[in-house]
């Protein structure tokens, strides 16, 4: 049948208009031909979506409201009674997902976020990318009005897409745009399954407005699939045996840990492995891997350890090329290996099993002598067993002698750190060593998490604090999208809430300004967290980069501050925090004031509230 | 050809050896610490070495700096990743001013006297 005849038939069946062509009153607009229902009774699609979230044990949904998910939002608060999941109100979608990022690393399970169709998803995309780079699970649900004929003119069109996944497909593990509620249930459970199987990562599912708002007729058969209870992939036993042979026979084996720890077993098993081999661990600190004061933690002299290694075992390295090579930021980018020629390299991990073609977060290709695909944390007990089997009394005594030497060298790290921390101890701006020591002094007898990436504080917390438990630190954004720290730390604090743990964020000024609204979220939801603003009044990394270019090009070296500093006016974080209902102090620029300020702030945090201290600090 | 290149290098080495010994003989060139402070805080030194010369993740400490000859060599031709400050952008006098300033950085307190550093 041709198009013309179809049109004709439809036209013939269309009843004649019963109203004047020009509406006379509001009531003349599209008068209902039959009574339209004005209200629903019974269950709606959003309720079923809440059932799906509950079946996955999702405790929180972080979200900035948006009309494309109004149905599900209403179901969360009225059908689910805002409990498991609870709606966490954020002020930017990037913060929603960054919170989920930090939450997952401490809770050991994902939370969900809802983002507005198209616009909210694009706001959140940076944080999704950080999750992807850091292999952290997050469930992102994006609203959409899928059916064009149901959209109201205007923004509802701008907030809908045929294929929302394409916005983030380069950096999610999977995405889904369900056609009906049953499809949604299966998609969500699959998304959760994929997100939490290593290599973990964010997933995005579209929540269609019609599906959220439709009435579920009694008798309609909908079911929620049971979550596939998967184990994480474990390494091949033959390959582990071969690795064990190499490691036991090595004179100077070195263990490098990257994004290794997932659970409390992480640090425990890494210590067992290091002790079985009496081998030093060089911790790349992408997770809380090796207890910071263990005598075999030789991160402080990682370069020397790598130079003398004859076998390197890398556990979930984020960037194996970078683990094994230096590339200097000089003209020509000269590179040199960190290891000697002939050093054998063993890698256990899942890191490069989920790479996407576009973004280069997968890093430069680097071969290993034994590459073992498998989740390192889950594989470690089997490697330890293989090492114990391989160990002879002779090799054991070699290992013990090596261990003694390492222990003696390791004993000096703390002393060296203290000596260096004393430099600039009374300086103003306040040194990052002093800030770190002052915080440590007040949390050392508490249960705590240090939730920030602290390379911009010269890694002082790793050097001065005793970190042991798997939640004592959690690595960084990995994607390097600034604006991660403040919300990710808040996500960690949300996960810590039920444990009564103190969460400390040593937060950069530039980072906090990307998502200052997290302070309001912290206050509104009474999330206990201590923000210490490392306020060096610059995007200091960039300041150094522009300085380097200026020196290189020899055309003036005193203007690198332009566009890299945050001065004139200075930011006043204490006032900013106060404006959002957060207890605050600062700016503090006398080192002697730091300790008492932290003491006061910790008292607030212990009451279950957030606090912020603005410290005018040294650059690094 | 090769010999000539080598001999140029040898002459170069000789000159720099003389230059160092002259600097050494005259001791450190006279610099103005106040001018040095201004330079230190505007042309980048503080970015990597800290306002107090305490050092950190981006550069070593400058408290107790190396002797002036080693200092000027490091400034003009850094041994690793520090950006070079050539004579075109930083005169010898300015380098001397900076040196005078960093020489005023006080000795740090003994960590044993700092209660927070008794780990």
Describe the overall structure.
The complex is a heterodimer of chains A (620) and B (119). Chain A contains 23 helices and 18 strands. Chain A is an alpha/beta fold and 620 residues long. Chain A has three domains: 169 residues, Thiamin diphosphate (ThDP)-binding fold, Pyr/PP domains (Rossmann fold), CATH 3.40.50; 174 residues, Rossmann fold (3-Layer(aba) Sandwich), CATH 3.40.50; 195 residues, 3-Layer(aba) Sandwich (Rossmann fold). Chain A has a six-stranded parallel β-sheet, with helices on both faces. In chain A, strands 8-7-9-12-13 form a five-stranded parallel β-sheet, sandwiched between helices. A five-stranded parallel β-sheet of chain A has the order 14-15-16-18-17, sandwiched between helices. In chain A, strand 3, helix 5 and strand 4 form a beta-alpha-beta unit. In chain A, helix 11 runs parallel beside helix 14. The longest helix of chain A is centred in the middle third of the chain and has 30 residues. In chain A, 51% of the residues are buried. The N terminus of chain A is likely disordered. Chain B contains five helices and no strands. Chain B is 48% helix and 0% strand. In chain B, helix 4 crosses helix 5. Chain B has 119 residues and is an all-alpha fold. Chain B has a domain of 73 residues: Cytochrome Bc1 Complex, Chain D, domain 2. The N terminus of chain B is likely disordered. Chain B starts with a helix and ends in a 17-residue tail after the last helix. The interface between A and B is large, with 48 and 34 residues.
């Amino acid at each position: 049948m041709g198009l013309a005849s179809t049109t004709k038939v439809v036209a013939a069946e269309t009843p004649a208009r019963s109203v004047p062509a020009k509406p006379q009153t509001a009531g003349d607009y599209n008068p209902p031909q039959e009574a339209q229902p004005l209200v629903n009774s019974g269950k709606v699609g959003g309720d079923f979506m809440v059932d799906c979230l509950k079946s996955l044990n999702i405790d929180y949904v972080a979200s900035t409201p948006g009309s494309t998910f109004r149905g599900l939002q209403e179901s969360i608060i009225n059908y689910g009674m805002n409990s498991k999941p609870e709606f966490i109100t954020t002020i930017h979608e990037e913060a929603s997902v960054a919170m989920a990022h930090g939450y997952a690393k401490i809770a050991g399970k994902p939370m969900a976020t809802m983002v507005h169709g198209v616009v909210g998803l694009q706001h959140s995309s940076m944080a999704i990318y950080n999750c992807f780079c850091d292999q952290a699970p997050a469930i992102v649900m994006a609203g959409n009005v899928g059916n064009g004929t149901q959209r109201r003119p205007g923004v509802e069109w701008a907030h809908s897409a045929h294929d929302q996944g394409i916005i983030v497909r380069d950096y999610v593990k999977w995405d889904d745009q369900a056609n009906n509620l049953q499809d949604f249930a299966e998609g969500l459970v699959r998304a959760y399954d994929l997100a939490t199987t290593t290599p973990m990562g964010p997933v995005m599912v579209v929540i269609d407005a019609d599906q959220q708002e439709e009435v579920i007729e009694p008798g309609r058969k909908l079911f929620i699939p049971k979550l596939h209870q998967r184990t994480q992939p474990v390494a091949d036993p033959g390959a582990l045996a071969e690795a064990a042979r190499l490691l036991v026979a090595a004179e100077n084996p070195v263990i490098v840990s990257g994004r290794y720890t997932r659970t409390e077993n992480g640090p425990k098993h890494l210590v067992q492995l290091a002790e079985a081999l009496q081998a030093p661990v060089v911790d790349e600190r992408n997770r809380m891997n090796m207890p910071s004061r263990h005598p075999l933690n030789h991160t402080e002299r990682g370069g020397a350890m790598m130079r003398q290694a004859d076998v390197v075992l890398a556990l979930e390295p984020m960037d194996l090329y970078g683990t094994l090579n230096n590339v200097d930021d000089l003209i020509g980018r000269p590179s040199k290996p960190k290891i000697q020629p002939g050093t054998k390299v063993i890698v256990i991990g899942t890191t490069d099993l989920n790479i996407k073609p576009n973004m280069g977060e997968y890093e430069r290709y680097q071969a290993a002598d034994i590459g073992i695909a498998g989740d390192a944390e889950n594989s470690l007990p089997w490697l330890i067993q293989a090492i114990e089997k391989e160990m002879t009394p002779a090799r054991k005594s070699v290992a013990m002698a090596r261990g003694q030497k390492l222990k003696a060298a390791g004993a000096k790290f703390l002393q060296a750190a203290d000596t260096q921390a004393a430099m600039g101890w009374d300086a103003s701006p306040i040194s990052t060593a002093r800030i770190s020591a002052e915080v440590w002094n007040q949390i050392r007898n508490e249960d705590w998490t240090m939730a920030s990436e602290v390379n911009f504080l010269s890694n002082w917390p790793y050097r001065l604090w005793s970190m042991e438990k798997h939640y004592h630190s959690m690595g960084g954004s990995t994607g390097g999208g600034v604006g991660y720290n403040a919300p990710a730390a808040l996500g960690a604090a949300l996960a810590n809430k039920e444990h009564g743990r103190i969460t400390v964020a040593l937060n950069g000024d530039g980072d906090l300004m990307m998502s200052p609204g997290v302070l309001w979220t912290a206050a509104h939801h009474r999330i206990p967290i201590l923000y210490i603003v490392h306020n060096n009044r610059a995007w200091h990394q960039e300041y150094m980069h522009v300085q380097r270019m200026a020196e290189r090009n020899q055309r003036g070296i005193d203007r690198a501050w332009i566009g890299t500093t945050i001065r004139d006016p200075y930011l006043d974080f204490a006032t900013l925090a106060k404006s959002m209902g957060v207890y605050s102090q600062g700016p503090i620029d006398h080192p002697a004031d730091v300790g008492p300020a932290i003491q006061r702030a910790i008292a607030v945090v212990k009451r279950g509230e957030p606090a912020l201290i603005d410290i005018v600090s040294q650059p690094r | 050809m090769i010999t000539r290149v080598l001999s140029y290098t040898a002459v170069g080495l000789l000159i720099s050896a003389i230059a160092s010994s002259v600097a050494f003989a005259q001791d450190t060139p006279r610099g103005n610490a106040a001018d040095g402070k201004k330079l230190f805080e505007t042309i980048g030194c503080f970015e990597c070495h800290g306002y107090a010369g305490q050092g950190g993740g981006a550069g070593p400490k400058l408290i107790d700096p190396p002797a002036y000859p080693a200092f000027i060599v490091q400034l003009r031709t850094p041994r690793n990743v520090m950006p070079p400050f050539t004579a075109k952008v930083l005169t010898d006098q300015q380098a001397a001013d900076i040196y005078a300033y960093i020489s005023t950085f006080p000795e740090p307190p003994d960590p044993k006297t700092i209660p927070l550093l008794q780990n």
